[in-house]
Predict the 3D structure of the following.
Amino acid sequence: MSFNYHIENYNELVRGFRRKKDLSKIEKYFKNCFSSELESKIYNYDYDALVLSDEAHKIVWVSDGFKDMTGYTKNFAVGKKPSFLQGEKTSTAVKTQLNNELALNHTFSGSIVNYRKNGELYLCHIKILPVYNLDEKLKYFLAFEKDETNRAHFNY
């Protein structure tokens, strides 16, 4: 029992350090649009990876957790659209819903089947938020991604 308590505390400490690092790395993109609300979400949302894309949906930055979750490096991902993670078993209905919501600059929340670099399927829960600059012009989309493969019971 005591060992589990220490492991849980250790994991929470590591998550806190990782979130602080994510926040310090992402702040440079948010010079004219960063808010305490975004900072709060980075600290409070449960995620494995952050993906920041521009208004054309091209990735401009990913957190270190992205490589851990997908197998792809930051250098490989930057400049591509997140759809490079999708494949044959990715739901067309979910892709359509996601694209429709983002076209309207809305928040999207849902789960999608993606593919790791090694070809393995994983269920990714994503929450995507539009990020506006101080002039209220759309600047980025910030995606909070969580690997839910081990918690899910779904047919590939």
